[in-house]
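During the reporting period the student researcher (J.K.) took over the structure-prediction task from the postdoctoral fellow and processed the backlog of single-chain submissions. One of the processed entries is reproduced below for the supervisory committee.
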Amino acid sequence: MCGRYFLTRPPAALARLFRTVDPVPNHPARFNVAPTQTSLVVRRNPETGARHLDLLRWGLVPLWAKDAAIGSRMINARSESLAEKPAYRDAYAKRRCLVPIDGFYEWAEIPGEKRKQPYAVAMESGAPMVLAGLWERWRAPDQSILRTFTVVTCPAAPRLVPLHDRMPVVLPPEAWPLWLREVEGDAASVLRPMDGAAFRIWPVSTRVNGVREDDDGLIARDPDVTPLAGLGVAEGPPAFGED
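J.K. obtained the following structure tokens:
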């Protein structure tokens, strides 16, 4: 599952990484991106073949939806049913996108307690984490167009299971052309968990629970929390490079 994430890398750096064409959207560093908020995705123009870095709203609104409120319940799409679910099958066939993030948050159950402990998950290397996504366009009653996206999830890698039984599909660079439909192939073949060894995991403050909280302190390691067994002991976030 992916219900909150952070993206602090400058859009210009992402544009270089993905080789997108201008213009580059303005997107300040975000430490707590939440559903129904806008964030950056990479889409491919089927007519020109060019990649574009665009701002879309998180929470997919299907073409047939009566109103946009349904998007808040469609922030994630299960990889196992993309080709069958009416909400996703057309986007899966025609409108796939990449969702660049620096890392995501997950909330783990604490034995014997009702509250949950938030953790941050990022690439150990500090590289961007590139998620498989789908996007859709929806026409509102006033005829305006709303463009939205969802994050594709899969069963969690064993190391991440203490956090949740599902995780976002993280795509390595060699899978980007296939997912963006730049090359022919079986898109389902890349919908699998990335090796858990690739990730750095650390506990963070419960301040991240509040959607209005959005500062760099949210990704700092909470020194008062002992990580769950099996997650490893990370001192905090990796050094995030610009590329």
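The committee noted the following: Helices lie at 11-18, 89-94, 176-179.
J.K. will present the remaining backlog at the next meeting.
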